Amino acid sequence: MTLPDLYARFRGDRNAVGVGILALFMGTLPLWLRTPYALSTLIFTGIYAIVTLGLCLLMGYAGQISLGQSAFFALGAYGSAVLSKAGWSPWLAMPVAAAGTGAVAAVIGSPIFRLRGHYLAMGTLAFGAIVHIVATEWKGVTGGSSGMPGIPRLALGGNPIKGDVAYYYVVWLFVVIALVVARNIVNSRFGRALRAIRDSQEAAQSLGVDISRYKLQTLVVSAVFASVAGSLYTHYMIFVSPSTASLDLSIQLVLMAAVGGLASIWGAPFGAAAVMLLTLILREIVPLLTRHGSGEYQIIAYGALLVTIMIFMPEGLFAGISGRVSATLDRWDQAPDRANAPPWRRALLKLAGRGR
Q1: What 3 state SS string does the chain have?
Q2: Residue 341 and residue 238: Cα distance in Å, rounded?
Q3: Which of 74, 192, 208, 237 has the most crowded Cβ, counting Cβ within 10 A?
Q4: pTM, full prediction
Q5: Nearest C-alpha neighbor of 216 from the set 239, 194, 188, 195
Q6: What residues does each domain of the chain span?
Q7: pLDDT digits 0-9 by tens, 117-126
């Protein structure tokens, strides 16, 4: 296949174009955004985007409610921390922790998915509470409520990754890989089966779809995503505590998925970025305007954000923005003076596959 053929195929695949644009944009971001606080926020955004991707597959595509995603995040974080402190390479500890977390998801998935609706939500919530209690009480392994310090950093060539810029690139490389994996899942036969289950379990079952197997496999995939993100978190913070399995974090992750768009893999990074930006604004501005911290206003702000998105962009932030961008590109493409348009506009139309 020639290079023009590869380019034509790449340009025709909007998801591939999106991955390329995201990789280019995030790759150049540290060149002009150098403050440690901003880079740290972007690192956490990437970590939460990976968890949210798994949650979108589970909730948006398979239609299964989960309020315990932070439990899988914590299992990955603690698993990687314990193994690396025992002398394992962090790069080896991460996949082993992910495999262990996936195994736990496979074990609990069968009984949990016998439940539906609110009962399913309560079941996943109970699992998160159990993990939080174990992390708090198993002091000999987890350090209890004081947490586990002294976790080794990720290293390249024997040199620990200490700077925020270097770790930023590591995290966002994982985000791009997770997006590619999720995209392939969604566009496969597996993804079509998930959408059938979401729309009607009875109809999907009548067509021969093994509902139990597909739901269980999706839970395992989402748990592995969360585990990898938890490992990245723990090796960045070099500390882990039971807060990684908290209900607050689970709610925040569900909010990220809902704001970005549950039925879109692109909703994950958009939702994570929106919620992290809102959190940053609250943390910096509210104390300046009031004598109180941002904690008591955070729930109100999250609720207002969710209500606003549901009213004006019911399919999520990404679908709303992309719809408006697509409408603008259509208007430019159909304009009578398209040939005399600015070069940057013609370049955008060509990149988007709009051509006459």
Answers
A1: CCHHHHHHHHHHCHHHHHHHHHHHHHHHHHHHCCCHHHHHHHHHHHHHHHHHHHHHHHHHHCCCCCCCHHHHHHHHHHHHHHHHHCCCCHHHHHHHHHHHHHHHHHHHHHHHCCCCHHHHHHHHHHHHHHHHHHHHHCHHHHCHHHCEECCCCCEECCEECCCHHHHHHHHHHHHHHHHHHHHHHHCCHHHHHHHHHHHCHHHHHHCCCCHHHHHHHHHHHHHHHHHHHHHHHHHHHCEECHHHHCHHHHHHHHHHHHHHCCCCCCHHHHHHHHHHHHHHHHHHHHHHHCCCCCHHHHHHHHHHHHHHHHHHCCCCHHHHHHHHHHHHHHHHHCCCCHHHCCHHHHHHHHHCCCCC
A2: 52
A3: 74
A4: 0.86
A5: 194
A6: 33-315
A7: 778 888 888 9
Query: Six-digit token pair at 72?
Result: 């899988």
Give pLDDT tens digits for 35-58.
888 889 899 999 999 999 999 999
Q: How far apart are CA 119 and CA 129, in angstroms?
A: 15
Nearest Cα residue to 191 out of 58, 81, 295, 308: 58
Highest mean pLDDT among 31-40, 98-107, 116-125, 148-157: 98-107
Could you say which of 3.90.660, 3.30.1360, 1.10.3470, 3.40.50 is the CATH number of the domain covering 33-315?
Answer: 1.10.3470
Return phi, psi of residue 32, to 5°. -125, -5
Residue 255 phi/psi, 5-degree rounding, is -60, -45
